[in-house]
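hey so i finaly got around to running the thing on FecR domain-containing protein from Methylomonas fluvii. pasting the sequence first so u can double check i didnt mess up the copy paste, my clipboard has been acting weird all day
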Amino acid sequence: MPSGDRQKIHPRVVAEAAEWFMVLSSGSVRPEETAQWQAWLALHPDHQMAWARVEFYSGKLKSLPPQAAFATTAALNAPNLNRRRMLLSMAMFGLAGMSGWQISRGRYWQEWLADQHTALGESKIITLTDGSTVVLDSGSALNVDFSVNFRRLQLVKGEIYIETAPDTVGWKRPFVVDTPEGRVLALGTRFSVSQQENRTQVTVFQDAVEIQPTDTTSAKQTLRAGQQAQFAANHIESIYQHNQDRPAWTQGFIVADDLPLSEFLLQLSRYRPSYITCAPEIADLRIIGSYPLKDTDKILAFLEANLPVKLSHPLPFWVKVLPR
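ok and heres what it spat out for the 3d tokens, dont ask me to read them lol
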């Protein structure tokens, strides 16, 4: 993610949005809690942006294994849990209506019916019929549609890294990646495409790509090696520079370059079946370094050992980072 986008939302606001999401997704919320959330949401545009980010990343909760629901049900029957904790538990594991909410989001079945998909913590390398290579990140879904006119990928969810090959068909079909926000045309290149909440992010590592938003009245934009940009359906945002050779996740790492703790944990959640939140008062602690994704528990243990934080496990499949 470009550093400019990170600066738009204060880390504390992201942490607050995560807490509200867990409460409201339960389906058993008191009217006063709904009113408090609506007041919080209307207080500042940043709150709405943070809510959209957390809502997007939290879509992975439907992938929790069946034993999570069993463990949580048992926990909810314990007499010493108060109502707020119960609400958080139910939101965490999809009880009391979470599945219905996700189905209503529209992409639920598209993900399940996609030609290629990966589970949480899984990556996959596929070779297309033209010799191009596509790597799917954790929790991603992709459709492949090669016709006489196009070599087309449809990114339904998550992130993909692509190394295109020359087309063996005589008329050299264009290679494109489509998302709800528009189309990315490869110009003989290596690049990645990430589907985010109402945004598509494109990063170019070699040669160039051309971006065309869904609204064709918006101008096209060419990105070259070392450039990155996000675009919505009706506009392309600012271009940022990067110095990567390829995405860190394709090499099994998550890289933090002065990243706020709340943002780092939000991204780390993509690679484990549990949900991670942090207390707002420590949300702005800065994270730097490269962390191997093979064992995300070790990453959390490292944070606990090197930052003024401690880990709490209120319920199975939920880790909360608190001030030490």
